Amino acid sequence: MKVMIVEDENFIALELERIAQEAGHQTIGPVSTVEQALAHAKRSDVALVDLSLSDGLSGAQLARRLIDRHGVDVIFVTGSPENVGHGIEGALDVISKPFTDERIASALSRAEARRKDFDSSKAAF
């Protein structure tokens, strides 16, 4: 699965990249702005998205566009999970910082299973 890392803090971005790669996924990025993320959206299956990016509190708006326009699954990874409220429709998970390797890998595993289920149900038609 192709995982886009959308995070403006370099150390966190590198940790997310390492976790995703160790879980057997290809990574795209890291990217730190909405514009960069949208440029890579067509190549991504899932995105790990922070709410606060280098171009402001733009993660929620980015997520909406990734989900609606590009069919990218979104997992929020944020230090402010309360700002997601009751969630954003279509987002798969909200993970609080600090996170564990297991928590990220588990969310990616669920995203991959969901994507496989969706793809196999499309093939049935």
TrEMBL record:
User: In its keyword annotation, does this UniProt entry include DNA-binding?
Assistant: yes
Which residue ranges does the record assign to the Response regulatory domain? 2-112
Any Pfam family matching the protein: Response_reg
Q: Name one GO molecular function term.
A: phosphorelay response regulator activity
Keywords, A to Z, come to: DNA-binding, Phosphoprotein, Transcription, Transcription regulation, Two-component regulatory system
Please give the GO cellular component terms listed in this UniProt entry: cytosol; protein-DNA complex
What name goes with this protein? Response regulator
Name its species. Rhizobium leguminosarum bv. viciae
